[in-house]
Amino acid sequence: MSNASTILVVDDDRTIAEILEGYLTQAGYKVVVAHDGETAVHLIRNELPHLIVLDLMLPDKDGWDITRWIRGDSRLADIPVIMVTARVEDVDKIIGLELGADDYITKPFNGREVVARVRALLRRSQRELQTRNQIKIGRLNLDLDLHQLFVDNESITLTPTEYKLLHTLMESPNHTFTREELLEKGMGYAYEGMGRALDTHIKNLRHKIEKDPRNPEYIETVYSVGYRLVNL
After folding, report:
1. The domain containing residue 80 runs over which residues?
2. Is the dihedral of CA 208, 165, 143, 160 positive or negative?
3. 214 shares a domain with 119
4. For the domain that residue 53 is a member of, what is the CATH number?
5. How far is Cα 34 from Cα 197, in angstroms, rounded to an integer?
6. Does the pTM of the predicted model rise above 0.85?
7. N or C: fewer beta carbons within 10 Å in the chain?
8. Regions in the chain scoring below 70 on pLDDT
9. Residue 141's closest CA among 209, 87, 61?
């Protein structure tokens, strides 16, 4: 699975959307595209993109409405938004920024400049998360100060052992931990016969964080070795 950040491009001009998709894909990002507001809202809810490049003028909902909706939803409010439009009036830019857009690009634009701004916003967003002492991977947000897990911004209660195990896995995404390592880090001891206890804790964690615990997207079993947490 890819560790690339997901960028949602929203533009009713398919040519412009394809150009943006090409530049961002070449820069190493995973890109999803919408050509109208309704599709954009659906993708935002389901994909939870790391950043949105949003055209102001759309055939149904405009970029202002979508930005207002994003900033009003606690689950989505931290997603950076770059507005892209052919309108050049300062008042339009001011309204967009006041509604919560993080940046503003006017058409015609340089594709490399868009990529540079995307990178800058993602770096800033990551720094802010680190400043708040959080680890965020996909839908998971582990607040290290509060010792609290949030999944899609909903608080999830963990036992102390579940918290330690998840903290260990999230600190080193995509790293495969042996069962002995997880027992030592999560439970403070490791000896023969405790493997079933670890499996039970992992099973309980999956029920709390996975959409489908039987087909986990985060905590993967590495057969004959242990477990790893995948950075989606």
Report:
1. 6-131
2. positive
3. no
4. 3.40.50.2300
5. 45
6. no
7. N
8. 1-3, 87-96, 127-132, 186-195, 232
9. 209
| 38, 61 contact by CB (below 8 A) | yes
Q: What is the 3-state secondary structure (H, E, C) of the chain?
A: CCCCCEEEEECCCHHHHHHHHHHHHHCCCEEEEECCHHHHHHHHHHHCCCEEEEECCCCCCCHHHHHHHHHCCCCCCCCCEEEEECCCCHHHHHHHHHHCCCEEEECCCCHHHHHHHHHHHHHHHHHHHHHCCEEEECCEEEECCCCEEEECCEEECCCHHHHHHHHHHHHCCCCCEEHHHHHHHHHCCCCCCCHHHHHHHHHHHHHHHCCCCCCCCCEEEECCCEEEECCC
Q: What pLDDT, on a 0 to 100 scale, did the predictor assign at position 1?
A: 38
Predicted pLDDT at 19? 94
Q: Is 1 domain-assigned?
A: no
Express each pLDDT in 81-100 by its tens digit: 998 887 666 666 666 677 77
- The per-residue pLDDT for 31 is 96
**Spatial separation of the C-alpha atoms in residues 77 and 75, rounded to whole Å:** 6
pLDDT at 38: 93
CB neighbours of residue 166 within 10 Å: 25
